[in-house]
Design brief:
By secondary structure, the chain is mainly α. It has helices spanning 3-38, 42-68, 87-96, 99-131, 139-178. It has one domain: Ferritin (Up-down Bundle), CATH 1.20.1260. Bound molecules: fe (ii) ion.
């Protein structure tokens, strides 16, 4: 096979890699746009809003990179790596979990997705480094995107205790309300137990 053919194949493969990152951003933006509607915590809402703006820039960078190596930027969306629960488990979750617990669960899903994005960028950057030549030009824009993804992961990690602290009183009071009247003792110390299990 001639050198020109090999380069063409490499370009095609790399355009495919970049388009899969783009499809991930396309799907991620759609998810964040629906997440921002449902989040009740002000800080989280603002951070998601900020990440939507960042992701739109990521999308543009990737579109330019795909075009620059002769590919066509995709408008498709990948299926995001979100947990898929067995039906009986999901039914139980829907029955037992409050709105606030779902809010925490969704923050957990946010972190899973953002971590996956970091992973995907990292792997493509490593391939670009290995391929060398003109592929090296993609490293800077890809690294900028990856940096934003990592900041989003770090933000969720750092702020998850505060999210939990803000949502916990509502989760606790929903449990108190659903417990039997004999358990609603007014002398219950708030710091007695951080565990969600009610004392019997
Ligand atoms: Fe992201």
């Amino acid at each position: 096979m001639s050198k020109i053919n090999l380069t063409q194949i490499m370009m095609q493969k790399f355009a495919l890699e970049l388009n899969s990152l783009l499809a991930m951003e396309n799907a991620g933006i759609e998810r964040l746009q629906s997440r921002v509607q449902e989040v009740s915590l002000t800080d989280a809402k603002q951070r998601i809003q900020h990440h939507i703006a960042e992701s739109l820039v990521h999308q543009e960078r990737l579109q330019q990179l795909v075009s620059s190596i002769g590919g066509t930027p995709t408008q498709d969306k990948i299926g995001l790596p979100l947990p898929s629960y067995p039906k009986p488990m999901l039914d139980m979750m829907n029955m037992l979990m409050t709105k606030e617990e779902w809010e925490l669960k969704n923050a957990e899903f946010d972190m899973i997705v953002e971590n996956a994005e970091v992973t995907c960028y990292l792997m493509v950057i490593q391939k670009a480094q290995m391929a060398g030549g003109e592929f090296l030009n993609t490293i800077e824009p890809l690294s900028l995107n990856m940096k934003d993804e990592q900041s989003m992961v770090d933000w969720i990690r750092t702020n998850s205790p505060a999210m939990l602290a803000q949502l916990w009183p509502k989760i606790q009071s929903a449990m108190d309300a659903s417990s039997s009247p004999s358990l609603s003792s007014p002398s219950q110390s708030p710091e007695s137990s951080p565990s969600p299990t009610l004392s019997q």
